[in-house]
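Q: I'm writing up a methods section and want to include an example of the input and output format. Could you take the sequence below and give the corresponding predicted structure tokens, formatted cleanly so I can copy it straight into the document?
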Amino acid sequence: MQDAPRLSRTSDSIMKKAIKNFLQAPLASQFGFVIICAYIIVAIFAPLIAPYGEREVVGDHYMPWSNAFLLGTDAIGRDMFSRMVFACRNTIGIAFIATMLGFLLGGGTGMLAAMLGGWTDQILSRINDILMAIPGLIFILLVLSFLGTELPVLISIIGLFEATRVFRVTRAVATNVNVMDFVEAAKLRGESLWWLVRREILPNVTAPLVAEFGIRFTFTFMFIAGLSFLGLGIQPPTADWGSMVRENAMLVSFGDFTPLLPAMAIALLTISVNFVIDWFLHQSSGLKE
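A: Here is the clean output for your methods example:
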């Protein structure tokens, strides 16, 4: 019973510290954080925010903006605003899953290579070098053309592609920590590999890995949108910002900038994530100015 008040005080302290850091952050970082939170809320509550279904045909094709259709309709009469909302969930969700997969693969093998060293490090590093030597876009397009563009295939291929980048960063930062005196002392005490990773390595490499996660997420996010624009990403009728730009690009010729809204949504989230990453790196570096 005494643990409950202690946990409550700890939670309040963490919340107050988070609010204080947010208020002290630059305006660009505050703006980025607010935008990211807005995107997350839209992604989670998409069915409640969208007035129509993701695939529902509700009107004639290319109807103008109105009270019934806030952003008009697309080529087959689906509400553009509703599809923009659902595309937020689809694009961000798939990019997040692919990035997480890349971090599990690349981070796990990178940590293993740094901790074990020797032949394990050499073999994993050479395999990673071979994969990185293959042009990423050409490799992914080739694999998708053979295996199809189903979501599990798309997520797996992009996750593998991102894992090669994560491996190099994880191995580099973990190797630097692995030679520190406190890690050597833990090894002399006979601590297990899992204990070393959990108690000594991870706490000291969290900041660069979190920053790398944000960077990898933005690249994955834009990459999926680019594949969808080319017709090899998220497939119709599933809503996706990249495919929405392609499907409605002809409207620009008639002075309608609705197709630019999905592109602006992609750019806004990318910029916002980078603002927050810059501030996080600044904070973790210990610099005051």
